[in-house]
Amino acid sequence: MSNAVLKVDNLSIHFGAHKLINNLSFSIQSQSIYGFLGKNGAGKTTTMKAILGLVSPNNGSIYVCGEKVVYGQTPTNRYIGYLPDVPHYFDYMNPMEYLKLCGEIAGVQKDEIKARSQALLERVGIDNRKKSIGTYSRGMKQRLGIAQALLHQPKLLICDEPTSALDPIGRKEILDLLGSLKHETTVMFSTHILSDIERICDHIAILHKGEIKIEGAISDVQTRAPKQEGIQLTFHYEAEALQFINHLEAASLPFTKQHAMQSVIIYGPPALIYEQLLPFLLQTKLYPVSIENLSSSLEAIFMEVIEQ
Amino acid sequence: MNGFVAFFKKEWLEAIRTKRLFILLIVFSILGILSPLTALLTPLIIEKSFPEGVFLQLPDPTAIDSWASFFNNISQMGTIVLLLLFGGILANDVKKHALIPLLTKGLSRKHVILAKLAMSYILWTIAYFISFVIAFSYTLYYWDMSLVSNLTLAIVGVWLCGIFLITLLMLFSTLFLSFTGALLGTAATIGVLLILPIVEATNRFNPLQLFGKATILLTSATVTNTYWQIGSTVMMTLLFIIVSIFIFNKKQL
Asked: Across the strands, what pairs with A166?
């Protein structure tokens, strides 16, 4: 389509015999917020790095604003703002100095740099502009990361797991910030947290083992799977989830279930499940971090995809 | 060019804020003071270390001794400090992934290498110059400088050798992207260059001879070999710069 900001065409990236990315194709339309969902190791970061020309693809091509991405020094990067998963800076600089460096490199006019830096720092909520970045918390570094990524007013903002290292409040702030960009730029962000996607995205791709399993507008994707009743238990560790499943199987409780990472979904009428499950949990002494009713079919879809 | 200037300014800020400039100035000032001082005090120290009654006839120190001590200090202590201070210059930025946001904004990798080299050269030049001015002033004050010939050539040769070592360090930094790798690679190369004089024909092209033979140069009538060494050092330095850029361009960061 003509207003695609990003177009990825049959992208394949191998590392030796290991296929990191396999025949990936998708496109992102202008001014959408595109969620890139997948487990750790699904290929999210590799895809993003390929879009930035930091990784050389074995096959396929990528276009940003209609221009082809080339490995190494790609001119298409002038359209892109990038926030790495754990952004690192030069600790001895303060945020204004860092943004000045970024602005000068990106070729932004001198007086523009100052005005934009101040506006952006205000927007991302960084007040103390004289403090050196080395003293910043993770959340503040992430916010500064968004400011530096937006400084040259990119057409596409790529954020690699912007929320994964943050506490719930920090996460909410970053998501609100990304959500507020909807009419200014196009956002592509990766995550393994489903609720992040549901909160702000209008489009989604679920990536698993280097392949896109499901892609499209969230509303379309949700209607693709019939809404199922059930509950989701999330444990602290994946080992606990596995232990729980083993107990469940040993007790031969009559539920259909799915498991992915720390979460287990049990299908059926919630009332019936609670009745049998709560005593069972007490008995096994496995205490989940959360128990919730299935709120959306996305969870079920995600589980189904990554269970394959 | 935008990128080079911006990154060069970043390097300058880094040299100041991480105290790299400060340490260099202190160490090289001390080396500058120490050189004439060692020449001045060595006979006294030797005399004192012998039991009383033993008569020693030691020649009085001259300006040549002062410069010999200066070149010794710079080529040993100076080199070690240089390697330690500049060894992590690329690795630090690469390891912390701090370059990625800048590279994706259009900063070229070539400019990263060139700005880092330019700043290192400047820091070395400032430190070496201060050290030289101190040593020169003291030597001039205590001794007769008329004995000394080819001083400019010797001083320039040692400076150039420093430039060569910094470039060598950058070459191994791009190759290994680590502090240890850069240091070991450079140390190994220095080792080879130190053994190489076994084959006399290589001396003409050996940059380290600019360090090693600086003192001899001060009383020597022939300087042809030094010109050869300067020529080959310049060529090798230029070659290493090009190769470093080439390697860094190919590295997946």
From this structure: none
pLDDT reported for residue B163: 97
Place of tokens 């190994």: B188
> What pLDDT does residue A62 have?
95
Per CB-CB distance under 8 Å, the chain A contacts of B103 are: 54
Angstrom distance (rounded) from CA A259 to CA A245 = 8
Tokens of B228: 């050869």
Find all residues with CB under 8 Å of A36, minimum gap 6, and list them: A44, A47, A48, A188, A189, A190, A191, A204, A205, A207
DSSP character for A6? E
Does the structure show a pLDDT above 50 at A117?
yes
pLDDT at position A222, please? 76
pLDDT at position A225: 64
Instruction: Give A36→chain B minimum CA distance, Å.
Output: 20
Helix (H, G, I), strand (E, B) or coil at A14: strand
Distances (CA, A) of B98 to A256, A306, B8: 47, 33, 15
| Cβ count near B31 (within 10 Å) | 25
Q: Is A124 helix (H, G, I), strand (E, B) or coil?
A: helix
**Pairwise pLDDT comparison (A226 vs B187), residue with the higher score:** B187
Alpha carbons within 13 angstroms on the beta-carbon side of residue A100 total 14
- H-assigned helices in chain B: 2-17, 20-49, 63-73, 79-86, 91-95, 100-103, 109-142, 151-176, 179-195, 209-212, 214-217, 224-250
Q: How many angstroms separate the CA atoms of B197 and B181, rounded?
A: 26
Strands A18-29, A4-15: pairing is antiparallel
Given A54, A92, A105, which is nearest B102 (Cβ)?
A105
Taking only the tens place, the pLDDT of each residue in B203-243 is 889 998 888 888 888 888 788 889 999 999 999 999 999 99
* pLDDT tens digits along A47-64: 999 999 988 899 999 999
CA nearest A75 in B: which residue?
Answer: B106
C-alpha to C-alpha distance for B33 and B108, rounded to whole angstroms:
42
Q: In terms of pTM, does the model score above 0.80?
A: yes
pLDDT in tens, B56-77: 777 888 899 999 999 999 999 9
Locate the DSSP E strands across A211-252: 211-217, 230-234
* A-chain residues near B17 (CB < 8 A): 92-93
Please list every residue in chain A whose beta carbon sits closer than 8 Å to the beta carbon of residue B22. none
Instruction: Give the N- to C-terminal CA distance of chain B in Å, as an integer.
Output: 22
List chain B residues with pLDDT less than 50: none
